[in-house]
């Protein structure tokens, strides 16, 4: 199912409509009308309806077998049972694609599930690809072809460079209606239940199409993580931006998405980390998809630190825009002397001629001022983009302003981004929409879009280098068994066996043995309870630090036994782990692995100890990570200054921490199918040259007993 | 200037227009037209123009002295010099209010500054109040009276319960144009340069007006902090919500605002903290003002944890809304059995009848389903508000949906909040606007507004109790001199003198003295360099901790001297502070004071040590704070779980920390006019019963030498 050549689905040489009808309210009737009346389709159309001789004034065919040719595509508007039977025959005949509007395939369970299984069998055995079921179909706007029953098809026909793939139809149509703001959308596929074709497949397909410059994806869930990753990587290689919004940031959202399209949604944090790594531009709300995509579609040059200009005719608006820009960490350009001179000559003395430019309402009297000054701002060598917010709609005057914007934009080396802030949408707004300069609706949204454009540029320059040579982190198998937990001692020995340095340690079965071990390690030591059922050692008083003498150690032995027995009376204590204590003054970080149901095994690094739960300051990557990626992970952390040293704090052994991350990554790759989770917290990070190593470790996974056995503790093996 | 009775400004019995003109393009001509043609003003109107006998078909008067009565208000549309002269005469004659459109009063410096001073003198000597200069005036929409030259006045005449005060005219007009979305705005004052009347004065005035239910304030800066605080407190006491957006979150924004209206903007963080404490509802972008204000204007009951319902006809939209709601930490209602039964009976089997409700497109065929099921959702006892997002515009069908929404809303106990997500604004949108149910434009913005409504309710139940009995934190004087800095030793002694416990300490002038002091304090001790020029002791290697013996201490003495002399060769070392060392394992917090140029002295508490700069986890209050407020400050911190104890960490002495906060507040109140900043960082917080005290202290202020002198170190005074 790796073939992403969907050309004959998007632009088939011929198509048959099963369930073609004259009833304008029926699904089949609407589909026929959209194809015959509102499309400009030049291929062969076969209407199939065994109960009619004529449909829509054309010959109606009784079944697929009687057609004079095998169509590339069948569009299916018949109930589930009939649809399955017909598609089985289509598959056998060699039809390549089907668009299946029909619902009732497993969203509600029962026989729908059985139908869905039969459809999957068709896909597997014949190679026919199915779009749907439970979807409004496909709109190939750039060729004006609609394989859809949507009554809105006729209204949303503005061709353009944006490619759109969504699961649901309602939100997809919401995006299509941004055409009223001047956006052009070349292709929209709604994948519905994603029984076969997924949003990922259309990302893959559109990445290779010249008429699509930016891909917009709206995801309720991701059915197949690896497939999505491959598609995103393919688009990234070609250099085509993918802008995505994925539901499932909260439990409410995950539950609702699951009940709508039965989509599995993994962790939102992990999803965002994967998106970021793959260069997928993630947005926070559906309206931001188009704002961002349209900006990216304008083909701006990639610059590392682009600077922008603000130009408007209201001081408050200039201040509002400057404020939002500063807050987003974006830089305003500093105008060169020639720019300032042109602004100074043409604008009144009380205007603001530095960036942001406030022309004041002087332009209301002489609109030609805009033509002369706006182009100067566009031509300034430091300016990469001009934001033009319009706070209010003056009617005619604003329309004239818009004419200037359109004219200057067409002459300008850099794009002008108009922002229409008013709820009044008079002729100026309509003119922007008609001229292919869709306005953004608020300064906040505009600045967010600009920030994403800048971040995407940085990713192209820097993040892209981080690209994984292989795709290892996707789950390659379905996990049925519950994983088991490997406690600290076993986990540490396995890590050490795999070349990851841990503090020297040994299990003691008696106070005497503990003292003997401590004398080998040298005081101070740490004592930690070991027991199969004891997961949170600290919580039950099972840990004692900084033991400096035989006496301390003996007391600790007794306290730990007393504490654990009082907290967990039923538990068995296997012994006490005696460990060399890390020098004081180390920084506590953490390194973790977690298995996302969609994205697979992910590595995490962050501030450890108790702070992880308070500040959640972590960065994540797909596997594997190399030294450079490990270094980039650390730089993303808010706590990075604690590693580099600040306010009299020492610089930490960052190199050792990076090496440890790489070793953990290697370990994870080696045991990819055994690991579910791993938690090294805290990871002690010393001063430069002192190293970095885990002080605690828990591993969760499958078949761990077998791995641990040969590493079981042998006396004196330290 | 404390009199906020602006009735005769907003609704004068008579008004004179200075600079009345027949030229429809002039400021005076537009003002006359707005008043005579587009207003429904019943009071006396006197047009004043010495060059004309007739203006706008009425008698024109040569000057203010010749009028048959003294008008309540003069509207001034003449250039600056003439305006000042006329206003001086108006003030002497007893005119109570002036609206001054004219620019050129000090925005550009020069003689404008002089004019401004003369205006201020009029205000002071005659009591006449001035709106402006440099403003578009005042629109009393509820009585349909415009004292404004704006050509848009005639288009923005939808009366309503929102009161609006802005500085600038452009952004104010932007908000006025939300009338096109169905919003009604009763009064708009644009205060321009705020030479006399400020946004705060209109907040104060509108708080007392029955026809205004919610006040919207847009601030480029706040000229007079105490005046703003008094106005906000007055509104809070009356129970009238104030929704505010203040520029100045970034340096760019502060600079641009300053150049526009010469507004001083203090720290955005401090501003937000003051807003929160006063119950002012702060928003993040201008469009959120109206979304939030309109929701608050609907007079929803205050509930501590209101639960909401989502109702729509698209599964993706339902999931999107549920996701945003979950992410905002808002609760979805759980429907009672009767609600579920009605939904189950009326909706198809494949609909989602739990919250969020997805009717599916079944409603397209039978719109009466909405009437029957939406009212059931509204009537559910757990539901406080129903969010109705509409993803797309189906034309007629959507218009019919809107009819249902309007009908059910009128019958419902709880409000329905429509969200119009599409860029297509067909008849359904227009119908919502016309029916006084202004739609919000995205789910994200709607959820933000709902969150603010919930937060405002919580504040009314809880935050309001925190109200200060007195207003102490506002700056009572203009500070001209630069403040001086008091180092750790002097600062600590002053604090101790004021009843704030600090670790025992003494300055040593020689290694022998240090050892003698340490023997009194008991090891371990801390050694810190003392020197007037040495502000960042750690940065220059001037601090040694955990000195456990005479030998350690002597080494530390030498190291500190060597370090400091190598870092700061020119500096003088006054001695070494020897201090009892706090027990290990304490949590490092901070307590600070800072003087905001607008809001005055503010107290801050947060996670201290190196973490403050990394995570900026702090909470702030105006002075004074009592024990309950101190406790609330701690609960706001993200790091609060570190105080209450988590993951085997001990519970900290929260009571001692609260007491310390109260003592610092008392100290600040006592020395209000001397203090500019104070930094207690770290504040050591022990386990329960161990106390909390500052380990380091810096005080910045005025006249500190005099305060410190009597507390200078005397040998053996510990």
Index terms:
7-stranded mixed β-sheet, homodimer, alpha/beta, Rossmann fold, 718 residues, disordered C terminus
Q: Uncertain spans of chain A, ≥5 residues at pLDDT below 50?
A: 709-718
Largest interface: A-B, 94 and 93 residues
What form of chain A results from the Cα inertia axes?
flat
Looking at the structure, the CATH topology of the largest domain in chain A is Rossmann fold
The beta-strand count of chain A equals 30
The whole-number mean of residue pLDDT values of chain A reads 91
List the helices and strands and how they pair.
The structure is a homodimer of 718-residue chains.
Chain A: H1 7-10, E1 14-18, H2 27-36, E2 44-48, E3 54-55, E4 58-61, E5 73-76, H3 80-93, E6 97-100, H4 111-126, E7 129-131, E8 137-140, E9 145-148, E10 162-166, H5 170-176, E11 185-190, H6 199-207, E12 214-219, H7 225-238, E13 242-246, H8 251-261, H9 268-278, E14 281-282, H10 286-297, E15 307-312, H11 315-327, E16 331-332, H12 337-346, E17 357-358, H13 362-365, H14 368-379, E18 383-390, H15 396-411, E19 416-420, H16 427-434, H17 443-461, E20 484-486, H18 488-497, E21 505-508, H19 511-521, E22 525-530, E23 543-547, H20 550-567, E24 575-580, E25 587-596, E26 600-607, H21 611-615, E27 618-622, H22 627-636, H23 640-644, H24 654-670, E28 675-685, E29 692-694, E30 698-701, H25 704-708
Parallel strand pairs in A: 1-2, 1-5, 2-4, 5-6, 6-7, 10-11, 10-12, 12-13, 13-14, 15-16, 15-17, 15-18, 18-19
Antiparallel strand pairs in A: 3-4, 8-9, 8-11, 20-30, 21-24, 22-23, 22-24, 25-26, 25-28, 26-27, 28-29, 28-30
């Amino acid at each position: 199912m790796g073939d992403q050549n969907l050309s004959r689905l998007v632009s088939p040489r011929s198509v048959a409509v099963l369930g073609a009808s004259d009833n304008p309210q029926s699904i089949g009737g609407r589909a026929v009308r959209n194809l015959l009346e509102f499309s400009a389709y030049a291929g062969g159309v076969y209407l199939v309806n065994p109960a009619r001789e004529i449909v829509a004034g054309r010959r109606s065919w009784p079944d697929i077998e009687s057609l004079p040719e095998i169509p590339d595509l069948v569009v299916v508007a018949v109930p589930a049972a009939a649809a399955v039977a017909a598609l089985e025959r289509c598959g056998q005949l060699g039809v390549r694609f089907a668009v299946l509007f029909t619902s009732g395939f497993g969203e509600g369970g029962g026989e729908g599930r059985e139908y869905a299984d039969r459809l999957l069998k068709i896909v597997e055995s014949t190679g026919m690809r199915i779009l749907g079921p439970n979807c409004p179909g496909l709109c190939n706007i750039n060729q004006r072809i609609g394989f859809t029953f949507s009554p809105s098809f006729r209204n949303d026909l503005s061709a353009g460079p944006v490619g759109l793939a969504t699961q649901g139809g309602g939100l997809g149509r919401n995006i299509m209606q941004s055409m009223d703001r001047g956006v052009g959308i070349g292709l929209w596929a709604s994948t519905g239940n994603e029984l076969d074709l997924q949003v990922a497949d259309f990302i893959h397909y559109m990445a290779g199409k010249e008429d699509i410059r930016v891909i917009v994806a709206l995801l309720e869930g991701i059915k197949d993580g690896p497939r999505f990753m491959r598609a995103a990587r393919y688009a990234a290689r070609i250099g085509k931006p993918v802008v995505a919004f994925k539901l499932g940031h909260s439990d409410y959202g995950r539950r609702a998405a699951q009940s709508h399209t039965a989509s599995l949604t993994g962790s939102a944090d992990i999803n965002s980390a994967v998106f970021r790594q793959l260069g997928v531009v993630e947005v926070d709300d559906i309206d931001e998809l188009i704002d961002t995509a349209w900006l990216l579609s304008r083909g701006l040059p990639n610059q590392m630190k682009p600077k922008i200009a603000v130009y408007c005719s209201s001081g408050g608006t200039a201040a509002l825009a400057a404020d939002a820009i500063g807050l987003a960490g974006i830089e305003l350009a500093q105008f060169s002397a020639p720019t300032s001179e042109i602004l100074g000559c043409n604008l009144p003395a009380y205007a603001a001629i530095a960036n942001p430019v406030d022309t004041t309402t002087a332009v209301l009297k002489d609109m030609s001022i805009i033509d002369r000054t706006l182009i100067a701002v566009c031509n300034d060598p430091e300016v990469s983009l001009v934001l033009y917010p319009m706070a209010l709609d003056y009617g005619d005057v604003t329309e004239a302003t818009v004419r200037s914007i359109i004219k200057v934009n067409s002459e300008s080396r850099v794009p002008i981004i108009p922002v229409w802030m008013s709820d009044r949408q008079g002729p100026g707004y309509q003119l922007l929409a008609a001229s292919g300069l869709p306005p953004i609706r608020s300064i906040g949204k505009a600045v967010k879009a600009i920030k994403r454009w800048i971040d995407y540029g940085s990713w192209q320059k820097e993040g892209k280098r981080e690209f994984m040579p292989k795709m290892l982190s996707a789950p390659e198998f379905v996990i049925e068994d519950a994983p088991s937990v490997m406690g600290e001692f076993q986990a540490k020995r396995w890590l050490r066996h795999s070349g990851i340095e841990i503090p020297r340690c040994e299990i003691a079965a008696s106070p005497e043995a503990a003292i003997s071990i401590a004398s080998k390690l040298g005081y101070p030591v740490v004592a930690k309870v070991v027991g199969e059922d004891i997961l949170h050692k600290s919580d039950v008083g099972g840990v004692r630090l900084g033991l400096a003498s035989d006496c301390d150690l003996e007391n600790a032995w007794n306290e730990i036994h007393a504490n654990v027995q009082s907290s967990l009376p039923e538990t068995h204590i296997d012994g006490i782990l005696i460990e060399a204590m890390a020098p004081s003054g180390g920084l506590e970080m953490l390194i973790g692995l977690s298995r996302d149901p969609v994205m697979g095994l992910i590595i995490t690094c962050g501030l450890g100890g108790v702070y992880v739960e308070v500040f959640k300051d972590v960065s994540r990557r797909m596997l594997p990570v190399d030294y450079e990626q490990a270094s980039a992970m650390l730089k993303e952390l808010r706590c990075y200054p604690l590693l580099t040293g600040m306010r009299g704090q020492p610089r930490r052994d960052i190199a050792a921490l990076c090496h440890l991350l790489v070793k953990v990554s290697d370990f994870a790759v080696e045991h990819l199918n055994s690991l579910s989770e791993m938690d090294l917290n805290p990871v002690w990070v010393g001063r430069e040259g002192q190293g970095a190593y885990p002080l605690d470790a828990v591993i969760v996974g499958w078949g761990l007993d077998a791995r641990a056995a040969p590493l079981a503790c042998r006396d004196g093996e330290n």
